[in-house]
């Protein structure tokens, strides 16, 4: 086994991070690389779960990669803050480029981004935080955005449609509006919360949910990462320059199950979700897509191997 310091240095090096995120590539290539990386990493996590290699549960964002990549690339990673939830791997990878640290974390290894104690849902790295309590991150995001306001920073908080049933979200919208907090609420509406279709629990429209609080809305229905990035950039500019909260609604599709095997949707409904897969939508516009896919597979292979070599976190 190699020394932990050497493994940690390899997993956390800044240069690796930029290469993993494809920051030197054209925008289309960069976004494609990040989306493919998220997809391959999450598919591998599901495989690893089935062999008992993970510590705890996992939720994947397969089908929703364009939201993470489109929104997070509209931010300044060194200044702005991201809050995420149970379905956080895509947000985390797009923010950090830390693939080995993610695998190690979810596998309960000391090399993990939270030393193997946080697991899949509780990641903390630089200005990125995730927590599995639905709605719990909304007040935390408003507080951190208020604290960072003087720096000119923007805070983004991702939520799902089911989380619009949590009262803490509305208290957060209210205070964000009253205090002029530079926070962008991003609602990824995949139409279902675990196994409950939104029509059974949510009244009213979600795209303008924040307007009664005087919060400006931006809305998109689709899976083209370029469109999402353009709209998110407008929203982030507005939040930063006006020092006001905003609401970015994205109608999206979850292709995979809620967590592992728990998909109660009909085959037709799942096929409809697959028809809006963001990867093929961008692939046709990326010249060297096959090279990018091979690179992403190699990154994931090496991340898993690195994570497997690290000691298991104990106690
Ligand atoms: C307060 C709270 N209640 C219940 C749960 C269990 N839970 C985890 S994810 C989830 C569904 C979340 O749905 P949504 O907000 O639409 O996000 P999605 O899973 O669709 O991404 C539930 C009920 C939780 N994590 N926190």
Task: Please give a structural write-up.
By secondary structure, the protein is of the alpha/beta class. It has a single domain, classed as Thiamin diphosphate (ThDP)-binding fold, Pyr/PP domains (Rossmann fold). The chain is built from 12 helices and 9 strands. The chain has helices at residues 4-12, 14-21, 27-50, 65-72, 89-96, 99-106, 137-148, 167-178, 225-242, 267-274, 278-283, 289-309; strands spanning 81-84, 124-125, 128-130, 155-160, 183-189, 192-193, 196-197, 216-221, 246-251. The strands form 2 sheets. Strands 2-3-1-4-5-9-8 form a 7-stranded mixed beta sheet, sandwiched between helices. Strands 6-7 form a two-stranded antiparallel ribbon. Helix 3 (27-50) packs across helix 4 (65-72). The protein starts with a helix and ends in a 6-residue tail after the last helix. It binds thiamine diphosphate (TPP).
Compact overview of the structure:
This protein is an alpha/beta fold and 315 residues long. The chain has twelve helices and nine strands.
In total, the number of strands is 9
Mind telling me the CATH class?
Alpha Beta
CATH superfamily: Thiamin diphosphate (ThDP)-binding fold, Pyr/PP domains
Query: From the coordinates shown, what is the CATH architecture?
Result: 3-Layer(aba) Sandwich
Mean pLDDT across every amino acid position: 95
Query: Could you name the ranges where pLDDT drops below 50 across 5 or more consecutive residues?
Result: none
The major beta sheet can be summarized as:
7 strands, mixed
Number of domains: 1
Distance between the termini: 21 Å
Question: Spatial order of the strands in the main sheet?
Answer: 2-3-1-4-5-9-8
Q: Which structural class do the helices and strands define?
A: alpha/beta
Output the CATH topology: Rossmann fold
Elements, N to C (H/E): HHHHEHHEEHEHEEEEHEHHH
Radius of gyration: 19 Å
Protein name: Thiamine pyrophosphate-dependent dehydrogenase E1 component subunit alpha
Keywords: Oxidoreductase, Thiamine pyrophosphate
Pfam families: E1_dh
Domain Dehydrogenase E1 component: 34-311
